[in-house]
Automatic annotation (TrEMBL):
One of its GO terms (biological process) is carbohydrate metabolic process. Belongs to the glycosyl hydrolase 43 family. Keywords: Glycosidase, Hydrolase. This is Arabinanase/levansucrase/invertase.
Length: 271
């Protein structure tokens, strides 16, 4: 079931170069040219709103977001029309050694039909690990975790998942490049299969991957040191086209997530 208001085939949530507290919503018919749907669309009462990650489930949009540079929480907000947003939940990490909770990525698993949040948790050093939370009820009000995603190296952040042909593909930000790991199970163990600047993306962080209507995969990423936002395409998640800038977004947006609104509930490849 799609929401009452569905203004675009693709939707992108982001924070911006000028604000770490405001979420902006962008729409597109082709995932190439983007128009602003609303901005700011939501500003939390306290704390930050960085790295907003969007998911559509049963007619409701859910966004998970970073609440601060330091701390042991991340937050969820909801909307049915992309215009009005309501706080939904704040998830607290109980491990008191954790001092940084970054880039929660909400994602529906096509294989298991479960909803996960992938989040980078760091100590004071900082020493980050990639962790998985899993919703234990359909209302997304109860979660279990964190579970360390084995095989993703220490101090890799901004991990996103894609499921294709029975394999989980993780795109995860190392130092300094976004690299590619695979696993048979969502928790891992993951094995890095493409490292360094293997696709020519440069020092790109905050990757997000969407499956286009024609079956291609498109990765977007934040080249923040150059005030650039780029994309690159692939049919198999291994070979990628040369990155291109997104003119309307470069120098404006920062780390966020793109989804295809009119796709099925679990819109990754289930084959």
């Amino acid at each position: 079931m799609l929401p009452a208001v569905s203004p675009a085939e693709y939707v992108f949530t982001s924070f911006t170069e000028t604000s770490e507290r405001d979420m902006y919503i962008w729409g597109s018919s082709n995932a190439t040219s983007w128009d602003l749907i609303k901005g700011p669309a939501y500003t939390p009462a306290t704390g930050l709103l960085r790295d907003p990650s969007i998911m559509l489930k049963d007619g409701t949009y859910y966004v998970a977001h970073t609440t601060g540079w330091t701390g042991r929480t991340f937050a969820l907000i909801t909307s049915t029309d992309l215009l009005s947003w309501t706080p939904f939940a704040t998830i607290e990490i109980t491990n008191t050694t954790i001092q940084r909770t970054w880039a929660p990525e909400i994602w529906k698993d096509p294989k298991t039909k479960k909803v996960h949040i992938i989040v980078s948790l760091g100590t004071n050093n900082p020493d980050f690990t990639t962790n998985l939370y899993t919703a234990t009820n359909d209302a997304l009000t109860e979660w279990e975790g964190p579970v360390v995603m084995e095989g993703i190296p220490s101090n890799y952040i901004d991990t996103v998942l894609v499921y294709k042909d029975g394999v989980y593909h993780a795109f995860t930000k190392g130092v300094p490049n976004t690299e590619h790991a695979v696993a048979d199970n969502v928790e891992g163990p993951y094995t890095l299969v493409q490292t360094g600047d293997f696709a020519g993306w440069g020092e790109m962080e905050g990757p997000t991957v969407v499956r286009l209507a024609d079956g291609r995969y498109r990765i977007f990423g934040d080249r923040y040191k150059e005030s650039r936002y780029i994309y690159s395409d692939s049919w198999d998640l291994y070979e990628w086209t040369a990155p291109q800038d997104v003119p309307q977004l470069s120098g404006v947006v920062r780390h966020g997530t793109v989804i295809r609104v009119d796709s099925e509930e679990y819109d990754d490849d289930e084959s």
